[in-house]
């Protein structure tokens, strides 16, 4: 059975909102499911006592109270109504008040009642939003629930239990836990069965496709810059590129800087390094030898690679045999790398000593390096890409009208972007964004968010420039695209 962590659930929730499925709709579905299951299990003459916290877990129970028409429902809110934290819970609480549902707001542990032993208790104190040590009010409420003989139904998670790790200081012992969308990891732990009781998973109307679709919720998971940061804390990277082409590494570097990375070095053949430096004073270049990367550059690169978080390899390097053979030695030296364009042909997928690599091919490159064929059909394409990601132990960002991103058995898709982005240089921009994010985030999240940001920046530019947009315009729109 698949599980979903609280972080993944929070991201999915934000993505649902971004794609138009409002939190309020999800809460309504959660509360209605809860009420329906209670109706199936308990006759109408069973009194229902709700212990609600001030988050959305409580909000689910307020909705359920409304759907339990005909039942005698009593609500105990731990705290005051004006302290309710989330808009959905506040909204549904105010409806209950107007509907005349008996509600008692509890501000002191001594006011927590002894529940009637014949009632069913709905435990909605907290779900996935639990943090830190229990406060006295909530702690006493958990004791009170555990010390009475009533049947207990927990909303989403038995209150007190960390939904991911299963750790707890004190938790509600439930007869039935109704969890939403998918079970949270701790709920499947056999040793916690005395807390979860019977487990029912209730769908709340989230399309499974939304689990694959990258959105605002993924961006919210990205590491953020701390106020006390020092130079380099927000990431440093090295681009090994240029040779036949000089613009490509510069675009990659400028995109990374606009994405918030602290330091970008470019190691480029001597013939083009000055040209690259002349594009912007923000670029730090190191001159390699000759016209194209070759084996005599390896000693310098061996010194530079360990000093950065991520190395980007490929853009503008060309396919000279000397370059390709130098790359075969350089790539395994990188602890984290983004490989694009000409760098892709130096990869040996039989070799397992690459540590953390994101590759960013388009379908032609993917077909050539994998000797597979990229299927037209999205589902089959996802299967092919995940199959290869698993076998090669790499993270793949397959560029296209719909991007497919895969690591291990997980496949995600990105639908941002416009047809005007077929203009030259957009791939270099995407590689720069990917590397910048990868300096402080894991490979899958970086690749997913980079695809989203790059496509969204393209959409913003398209509104301004139509089909005349350029790769440099996209770079300028990165900050706006990062905050959809
Ligand atoms: N994420 C989603 O997509 C959905 C979530 N829903 C519900 O929303 C819940 C999550 O809601 P929230 O994020 O608002 O969080 P919760 O309602 O789980 O808990 C947050 C509340 O508990 C308090 N709290 C946290 N730790 C505490 C501690 N140690 N001692 C005392 N009080 C503490 C907080 O101050 C806050 O008032 C889920 O478990 C689920 O029941 C549903 O409405 C359906 C959709
Ligand atoms: K709960």
From TrEMBL:
Domain YjeF C-terminal as annotated: residue spans: 214-484
Binding site for (6S)-NADPHX: 56-60, 127-133, 156, 248, 316, 362, 428
GO terms (BP aspect): metabolite repair; nicotinamide nucleotide metabolic process
Annotated binding of AMP, by residue: 427
Pfam family, one: Carb_kinase
Manner of cofactor binding, per the entry note: Binds 1 potassium ion per subunit.
Keywords: ATP-binding, Isomerase, Lyase, Metal-binding, Multifunctional enzyme, NAD, NADP, Nucleotide-binding, Potassium
Subunit field text: Homotetramer.
Summary of the function given for this chain in its UniProt record: Catalyzes the epimerization of the S- and R-forms of NAD(P)HX, a damaged form of NAD(P)H that is a result of enzymatic or heat-dependent hydration. This is a prerequisite for the S-specific NAD(P)H-hydrate dehydratase to allow the repair of both epimers of NAD(P)HX.
Protein name as annotated: Bifunctional NAD(P)H-hydrate repair enzyme
Protein encoded by which gene: nnrD
